Amino acid sequence: MLSEFKENISSFWINPKFNKNLNQKFNMILLLHGGVYGGELEAFAINFQNDKKELATLEIKDERYDYLDNISSHEAFIIYPLSDFTMKIQGEEDNFDNWDDLMAIYTLYEATAYILAHKIFSIANEENILQSNFNIEKPFYMTISEHDSGIPDKIIYQIPVV
Question: CA 94, CA 90: separation in Å to the nearest integer?
Fold first, then answer.
């Protein structure tokens, strides 16, 4: 997953064909996945307006998000446990006792995916991948959410102000 993340950064995120303003500052990357119907992650760069010093609490419709057009809807990486699970259940939804049973299993896979994404960003931070490719501001937030889920995005990694 980390090598796919690195490859997509150079193939899409910092490729002048897709990103016209590499000098633009931002402080958040939002990763969105398709929920029960997909484990691939799309990345969106955001200027997150947070005046508070403590860890941010995100809202469902967060007015503090300013989506940047230059890094928008680029491939990030595939979280394979979640992607594999969602691929295997396509068309098999009726084989579960009910939707709640399916969602209970899905929730375990989703939580595992979020933990794995946290690990990817931890390594990426240690390897200075984001700081060397982008003009990021700190604190820098890595967030994740299911597309159109109706629940707030989750902060899964933060690079603090040092």
Answer: 10
φ/ψ of 147, rounded to 5, equals -55, 130
Contact between residue 29 and residue 142 where contact means Cβ atoms under 8 Å apart: yes
Q: Are the CB atoms for 25 and 118 separated by under 8 Å?
A: no
Concatenating the DSSP letter of every residue in 46-86 gives EEE----SSPP---TT-TTEEEEEEEEEEEEEE-HHHHHHH
User: Would the pLDDT of 126 be above 90?
Assistant: yes
pLDDT tens column, 43-94? 888 888 776 655 666 666 767 676 776 666 677 788 888 888 888 888 888 8
Beta pairing, strands 154-159 & 25-33 = unpaired
Q: Peptide bond preceding 139: is omega within 30 degrees of 0, i.e. cis? A: yes
Residue with tokens 């995100």: 58
C-alpha of 9 from chain center: 13
- In this prediction the pTM is 0.80
Domain ranges across the chain:
2-18+26-159
